[in-house]
Amino acid sequence: MLRTLYIRNYALIEELEVSFGPGLNVLTGETGAGKSILVGALKLLLGDRASPDWIRKGASKAVLEATLDLFPDDRRVRAYLEAQGIEAESTICLRRELSSTQSRAFVNDTPVTLTVLREVGSYLMDLHGQHEHQSLLRVEQHGYLLDSVAGLNQQVEAYEARYRRYQALLRRRRELEQEAERQRQWRELYAFQAQEIDAVGPSPDEEAELEAERRRLENVERLFESTARLHALLAEGEKALIGYLATVVEELEDLARIDEAFRDWTEEARSAQVAMEELARFLLDYQGRLVFDPDRLQVIRDRLGAFERLKRKYGGSTEAVLAYREQIGRHLHAADRSEAELQELRSALREAESLLSEAAWALSQARRRAAETIAPAVVEELAQLGIEGARFLVRLSQEPDPEGWVVGPEGRRYAAGPRGIDRVEFLISTNPGEDLKELARTASGGEISRIMLALKRILARMERLPIMVFDEIDTGISGAVAAKVGRSLKELARFHQVIVITHLPQIACQADQHYRVEKVLRSGRAVTQLRALDEEERSYEIARLLSGDAVTEKALESARELLAAARC
To answer: Are 28 and 44 spatial neighbours (Cβ–Cβ below 8 Å)?
Structure first.
């Protein structure tokens, strides 16, 4: 229940605090007094977006605050508050602060986003705006109304989650397919180039080794002659160098025995002798291993030629060739990964399509069951509101589409939207014997208001919303019909707190609490204020509604009769 509403520096309201009671709360007032400002304030507290233009001129900040009592067994809002880290007490306070630079929202003094404020508000209050009944004239709104009245919003949200998932997968598939198309233009070339480089399998170390071997094989004759000549100089004949070195070592040893100054040189000479002996053995061994192999030389020349061809095509050096191979390898790996992801994505899409189809048909069946229940309930409500003999039908249809996302049980595809596959339309006949026709073409303004009230009453029975607000639900009705609407609202107020803004005395007289919205001048400026009326003031206000500004004694008498009849 909405206990108090506090508003400061909002539009024409300087400061206002009003307490509401249980049952039917009625607000009346002259046109332009500011009734719509109060509804606007409630909408802000329910999460509507704000504008700094709504701050009262000369003020730096507007403040709006609503204090509400929760039902003791209202677990939904308590669970949601706890999930948001907000202490769930028996009383809840919604607050908005507007400045020229920002808008802030609070629940129980905890800062929250508008999304959270909106969600909390949806558990507490149903606000029927001044022209909301006109949504019945727009077929595209009928689905929203059906889902709301049937309590299918959570099921719709579950479907929407699968719909968004399927959309996201489709977008990703399109991106990958476009990327794959771009890759086809170079992938074949890169694959050929990679194959060409891999067929050679170059490496910098191998190239250096091949070059060294080629030089040896091309110069094998010179190597043999040179090593033979060197070996002869070192170890063959009387004039061999090694022999002379042996003589030098012997002489130095004799001298060292006489003078220690020759000791080091003796060691140096002995080392030279050993080195020359090792060199002679190496030359002899090297000669023994020298073989002229023209076939091997040709293999090496061919291999080095392959290296040269790669270097000319891919960068001028073996290192550049290998760097280019690594680069195209990354591209080819990315392409392979994209193809693998595309395959996985196609599998995920098939699964997502199955889940989407399952959710779409489950939602459609739930709507059909709800339509069968709601249609007679609307007819019953309309009878109480003065439309006897009416017939009402909720028509659901689907659009076959070969490219549709949803597959039916029979294997046929259907077009799907964010809220399912159903096109929902209300049909009505308000007079016996008439055919059912589109509601927008058939119903009058007064009938539209009563149909909306009937839907709201059904909603109230099916979903326990503590507070229901109606802004001019009485559009297009008067007289006996207005009296029936008033009694219907009174009946609704037995189970819910109902707040009604009206200009009809037949509704105002049913109030448990009656408030007058009025605009007054204060310090030369217009100010909207709201005050509760006592019994005499109520009689005068209802008389004003009956006769206009000039309240006569006859009008007062009629007002008192209306009030007395409403108490019976």
So the answer is: no
Nearest to 164 by CA among 422, 423, 416: 416
Taking phi over 0 as left and psi of -120 to 50 as alpha, with beta for the rest, 108 belongs to left
Q: 566 and 516 share a domain?
A: no
Say if residues 538 and 563 touch (Cβ distance below 8 Å). Answer: yes
Residue 437 falls within a domain, yes or no? no
Q: Which of these, 130, 303, 91, 337, lies nearest to 207 by C-alpha position?
A: 303
The 8-class DSSP code of residue 416 comes to -
Which helix (H) or strand (E) covers residue 115, if one does?
A: helix 114-124
3-state secondary structure 208-266: HHHHHHHHHHHCHHHHHHHHHHHHHHHHCCCCCHHHHHHHHHHHHHHHHHHCHHHHHHH
Q: Are strands 103-107 and 110-112 parallel, antiparallel or unpaired?
A: antiparallel
Residue-level pLDDT at 9:
93
Instruction: State how far the Cα of 452 lies from the Cα of 142, in Å rounded to an integer.
Output: 11
Q: pLDDT tens digits, residue range 217-273?
A: 888 888 888 888 898 898 887 778 988 899 899 999 999 998 899 999 999 999 999
Q: Which amino acid is at 478?
A: S
**pLDDT given at position 413:** 94
Instruction: For residue 86, report the phi and psi dihedrals to the nearest 5 degrees.
Output: -110, 130
Residue, of 141 and 65, whose pLDDT is higher: 65
Q: Which domain holds residue 542?
A: 534-568
Asked whether residue 253 is domain-assigned, the answer is: yes
Average pLDDT over the chain reads 87
Sole residue written with tokens 């939904």: 76
| Cα–Cα distance for residue pair 324/355, rounded to 1 Å | 46
State the total domains in the chain: 3
pLDDT digits (tens, 9 = 90+) for 340-353: 778 888 889 999 99
- The per-residue pLDDT for 443 is 65
